[in-house]
């Protein structure tokens, strides 16, 4: 197992940009996850539903956010992850994954950090998340 990373309270995590999101990205994710809701592949259906066009499924952005944080802290140190879907992601949009370290708790010879994470398009939050990760203790 890899060693936990060293994080400090208030630290900004190295952001990652993804996109622009394409129809192909959405269709591939639909095929992998089995979500064939027409909101994700049929532009006319999406417009009739009140959207400007097809949207990505929320789990796609949540998965991108989870993969990013797992890359940063090493997946074996990810202790918990929860998400909240805030707004839809549309074709052509660029997604920015970012976050910071809110707190660190140390007990005996282990330490865990609570992270606040978000996937955004400009100033608009698409998905917000919280993660708890094992970190190196000082």
TrEMBL record:
Gene3D superfamilies: Hotdog Thioesterase. InterPro entries: HotDog_dom_sf, MaoC-like_dom. Residues 9-107 form the MaoC-like domain. It comes from the Bacteria. Belongs to the enoyl-CoA hydratase/isomerase family. This is Acyl dehydratase. It comes from Gordonia terrae.
């Amino acid at each position: 197992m890899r060693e936990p990373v060293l994080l400090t309270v208030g630290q900004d995590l190295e952001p990652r940009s993804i996109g622009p999101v394409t129809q192909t990205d959405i269709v591939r994710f639909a095929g992998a996850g089995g979500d064939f809701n027409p909101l994700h592949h049929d532009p006319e259906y999406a417009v009739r539903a009140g959207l400007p066009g097809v949207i990505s499924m929320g789990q796609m952005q949540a998965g991108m956010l989870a993969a990013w944080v797992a890359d940063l802290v090493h997946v074996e140190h990810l202790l918990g992850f929860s998400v909240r879907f805030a707004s839809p992601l549309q074709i052509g949009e660029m997604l920015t994954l970012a976050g910071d370290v809110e707190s660190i708790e140390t007990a005996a010879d282990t330490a865990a950090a609570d992270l606040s994470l978000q996937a955004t398009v400009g100033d608009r939050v698409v998905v917000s998340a919280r993660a708890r990760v094992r970190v190196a203790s000082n």
